[in-house]
Amino acid sequence: MRLYTSAPSPFGRKVKITAHVTGCIDQIDVVMVDANDPNSVAAIPNPLGKIPVLVLENGELLMDSHVICLHLLQLGKMRDRCLPAPQEMQLLTRAAVADGLMDAALLMVYERRFRSAEQVSKEWLHRQNLKVLGALEWLDQHRQSVIQTPTLDQIGLACALGYLDFRFQGEWRTRFKSLAHWLTEFQQMVPAYRLTDPETT
Hints:
This protein is an alpha+beta fold. The protein has two domains: 2-80, Glutaredoxin (3-Layer(aba) Sandwich), CATH 3.40.30.10; 85-195, Glutathione S-transferase Yfyf (Class Pi), Chain A, domain 2, CATH 1.20.1050.10. The chain has helices spanning 10-22, 38-42, 65-75, 79-82, 88-113, 122-142, 152-168, 172-175, 177-189, 191-195; strands spanning 2-5, 29-32, 53-55, 61-63. It has a four-stranded mixed β-sheet, covered by helices on one side. A hairpin with a 5-residue loop joins β3 (53-55) and β4. α1 packs parallel to α3 and α7 packs across α9. The longest helix has 26 residues, at 88-113. The chain is globular, with a radius of gyration of 17 Å.
């Protein structure tokens, strides 16, 4: 299988951590994409030009990190551990909020990256920041204790917080100390988090 992604992508990181947790990582050839290079982006086998994308052995494409992660849970026979049926809806809801946090943070990054300084909308940045803060508050209230084999929502939360560290210098940590402690525990308990650090990969 081939995974098209980039080191900074929190959604790509979520897929890579899931691949490690499920034992599928050795079956995946990671193709790194440079989001700032039009030629690199043009090579992504996704009509939307978005990452991550997983190309299966038969050539079939799986797009969207959520879909790819579900496939890896099935392939690694880890669905019952990472997405246990009794809590599935609650886990998927927490995973969706973590994804929404990443979406809002990405939009803030893109607003500054693809617009000149005079075109950047402070109102737009403020709206996205409110989404980030709202998600952090909700996830802080609904976080679950870290376990050695993390659930899908915990992987998503760790990647969302890691992206805020990477792109926003960890400003969230001052206000959300309990989440910062949670992330430290996740990092210590789940080696794949360090292995997928965007600063070193």
